[in-house]
Each structure stands twice: as structure tokens, then as C-alpha cells.
Amino acid sequence: MGDRESKYVTSSRPVNLRTAMRDAAPPDPPVNTVLRDRIAAAQARARLGSPLAEQVRSRAPDATRLQPTAIAAALFATACGAAALFALIQGLPLAGMAAGAGVIAGCFLVWHAQRRPPRAPAGEAPPLFDHASLQALDRMLAEVAVEIPEHIALQLAEFNRMVVRLSGQAAVADGEFTLEDRMYITECVRRYLPDTLQAYLAIPSDRRDAVLLEGNRSAADLLAQQLELLRGELEQREARLARSAADSLLRQQRFLQAKRKP
Fold first, then answer.
1. pLDDT tier at 162 (50, 70, 90 boundaries)?
2. Which of 24, 70, 106, 177 has a CB 3.0–4.6 Å from the CB of 244, allowing a cystine?
3. Radius of gyration of the chain (CA)
4. How do the domains of the chain map onto residue ranges?
5. CA distances for 74 relative to 35, 68, 84, 106, angstroms
């Protein structure tokens, strides 16, 4: 039989254009990125605990205390509100508008003052971890939580607990706990752990358990070793920080004994 013209359709069964599209595979449903992120956050919370930023902020002594600037701004907004009400009663529109602007400005100052992290009192060391670094690490942990095996999830959960413990201590550099120790703890949260997790995620998921490296080590094995290394270094610095606090208490005792009358 000769070649058929291209405008003709041939089939082993009758062709029905109305039902032809029914046999085609349905298109993939659209991905809801917001829902996906929420699911990832819930899985991270279940495997690794609450986000670090929430835990550290809840342990901060000044987390809910009003700042002096916020108190002054609140008093200013209250006075402007009273002035605006008085101007409204007296029928003074310009004065009322000015007082209303003062109320808005005062509310903005209250919000801005409470939004900023509280400053450390004079003589005290600033916090070990800033809020932005903790939030960035939380996002990385939420991304990696669904990609790691259970034993690595346990390591990360222990790392998180150690970070929370360290955040509640006054890390003042002295002879026992040095400035280098303080910088290592800070950089561990800001850079060392996120870089380690990012390097792990860069490897295709189907190759992370395969032997890729020398010494018969897989990507998962190497990640576990690096997490253990970070944990060990943090434990050493946590012990130095405890000894530093004990030395401070001992110095205070010696001071009190020296002040005791004979």
C-alpha cells in the first residue's frame, strides 16, 4: 500500500476525537508553595524540636520587657490621644489633626522600639547569637529535616539543645573562656553548620547513601562525622564557659572574705 497522506489518521480501532483526550495522563496538580513550607516546618519541629529563634527568644530575660523608649513613646501617644479628643470636643480640626499625627508617631515609635533587640546592660557581654542568624539556621534545618536519616536528625536535635543552653549563659571572655571560644560558638550557628548542611543538600538525594568518597564513606557518613566534630567543639567550649563562671564565683568569695572584719 502506498504512503498515506499526512492529513489522514489511522488507528487499529475507530477514532473518536471526543474521547481521545480522556486517555491522556492528567496534568500534575499545581504545587502550593505555602503549604509545602508549612509541612516542612511541621516535620522539622517534629524531628528537631521548636525553632531555635523561638527557644532562644523565650529564654531571654528582656524578651517581654518594655524598653524605656517604648514607654516614653506610649506616654507621648496617650497625651496626643487626649489632646485629639479635647480638640474634637472643642471643634478645633487643625489641633485635632496635629494631635492625631502625634498618636500615629507615638505608636510607630513604640513598635520600632519593641522590634529592636534589647541592648545588653553595661558590663555584660552581648548575646552569643543574633536573631537573624538563628532564623536563617531554622530555615536551613526545616529544609534538611525531610532529607536526613534518623540518626542525623538525633544529632541535630542534640545540637539545637546545646545552642539553647549556651544562649542562656553570660559568655564573658576571660582567662578560661577566650574571645576565640566566643567567636567559634557564634560562627558555628551563623556559618559552620549552615555551610555543612548546604553542602549535604547539594548532593543528589539518590546518591547520599552511596559510597562516593575515599575510605568507603557516603555523604550521610561524612555529614554525621562533621556534626559530631561540631558537637565536640561546642562541648569543650561549654565546659570552659562553666569553669569561667565558677572562677567568677570563687573570686567573689575571695573578695567577700577580704572585706570581712577581723
1. very high
2. 177
3. 31
4. 125-259
5. 38, 10, 15, 6
